[in-house]
Amino acid sequence: MTKISKELLGALESDSAHDLEHVLKEKKKGDFEALQSFLSLDPSINPKHRAKAIYALGRWGDPAPVADIRRILPRLDEAGRISAIDALGRLGTNEALAGVLEYVNDPSPHVRKFVAHALGKINTSEARAKLKEIEAKDQVDYIRAIASKYLKSEHQHP
Fold this sequence. Notes:
Structural class: mainly alpha
């Protein structure tokens, strides 16, 4: 694994995602590479650290890790899938959209909630079409409401 700075390790070990803000503000290349090193299924990696690393990568804004996030996504626990879907929605590439679409029917309503938010952020015609399907068919009221919110505001997005 890539060398991890004490600051980054402290942020990953913290109970608050806000502790990653300084790392994200500074955007050091070494930290980006260290965060990417968590995109492995190595069993020695703490799943909470992996989920936070994915969270940070989504906010970093560089789409380079999209393929790796998609590769590990099927093997992640619920918290990891939530972080991964959120990250893919923020990164917004066509490949990220494809990854999000694979989880529209995830058994976890918490994951599906993040799918709806990710599709709303991506806001392409394909994403909006899937939001219409979610709005009409999801079993959970608040997920349908999220989809509806993004569809109603679609005229405000480019």
